[in-house]
Amino acid sequence: MKSVRALLQFTTILPLGKPADFDRFAQHSWLYPLAGYVTGAVAALPGLLAWYFGYTGTLVTAALTLALVILITGANHFDGLLDLGDGLMAHGSREKRITAMTDRTTGAGALALGITIVLITFAGLASLPPLWIAAAVLCGEVFGKMVMGLFSALGKPFHEGIQSYIYEHSKRRFAVYTCILALPLLLFPEKIIVAAGFLAAVLVFLVLWSVARRCFGGVNGDVTGAGNEIARAAVAVVSALLFSVCA
C-alpha cells in the first residue's frame, strides 16, 4: 500500500496525508496504471453524471472531463508535454534541444504542442456520447499511465533526474507487468475499442521513444509525462473513430 500511496502522491493532487517514501514507488514503477484507474475514474464523473441525468451536451461534457483530468493530475504530465514541445521545436544541436526542453521558460513550441494535443483530445471526446466519454477518458488515463510505465522500464535516460532515478530502480520485465495491469479494461463490453486504445498507446510509446532517442539521446521525465498526454489523445481519437463506425 505504501508503494501505491507514493504513486498517487506523485501523479495526483489527492490529499493522502504524510508523504510516502518515493523509493517504494520507484522500486515498483510498473504500478503506474493503478494511478490511471484512479484519475480516470475521477475524470469520468462528468460523463457519468451527464448520462445519468440525460444531458446530451457533449461539448460541455468533454470540456469538463478534460479540465478535470488535468486538474486531478496537477497538470504535472501536461507540463512535461509543454517542455517536450520546446525541445522538439528548437533548432540546432542535440544539446540546444535539451537546453530548450529543460529550461524554465515556455516557448512557442510548448504552446503549439500543448494546444494541439488538447484540441485533439477535446475533439475526440466531444465526438462521443456522454457514457462513452467517461469510458474513453478512463481508458486514456490507464493506457497513458501504462506508457509511463513502459518508459520507466525501457526509456534509457539522457541525464540525471526523476526519470533516471526510477529507471535505475526498474527492471525490463516491468514493461510486461505494467501492460498486464491495464488488461482489466477488457471487461468493458466494447472490447474492440479497448484493444484499439491499447494498440494506439503502444504506438505512441514506440514513436515517442524513437523521437526522443533521435532528438535528445534518451528519455527524461518530460518525455515520460508527455507520453501520458499524447496517449490519452490517441485513445480519444481512436474511440471516436470506432464509435462512428459502430454506431
Automatic annotation (TrEMBL):
The chain crosses the membrane at residues 34-53, 59-84, 105-125, 131-154, 174-189, 195-212. GO terms for molecular function: adenosylcobinamide-GDP ribazoletransferase activity. Its cofactor is Mg(2+). It holds the Pfam family CobS. The keyword Mitochondrion does not apply. Keywords: Cell membrane, Cobalamin biosynthesis, Magnesium, Membrane, Transferase, Transmembrane, Transmembrane helix. Its EC number is 2.7.8.26. Pathway: Cofactor biosynthesis; adenosylcobalamin biosynthesis; adenosylcobalamin from cob(II)yrinate a,c-diamide: step 7/7. It is a multi-pass membrane protein. It is found in: Cell membrane. It catalyses: alpha-ribazole 5'-phosphate + adenosylcob(III)inamide-GDP = adenosylcob(III)alamin 5'-phosphate + GMP + H(+); alpha-ribazole + adenosylcob(III)inamide-GDP = adenosylcob(III)alamin + GMP + H(+). Its main location: membrane. Belongs to the CobS family. Joins adenosylcobinamide-GDP and alpha-ribazole to generate adenosylcobalamin (Ado-cobalamin). Also synthesizes adenosylcobalamin 5'-phosphate from adenosylcobinamide-GDP and alpha-ribazole 5'-phosphate. This is Adenosylcobinamide-GDP ribazoletransferase. It comes from Methanocorpusculum vombati.
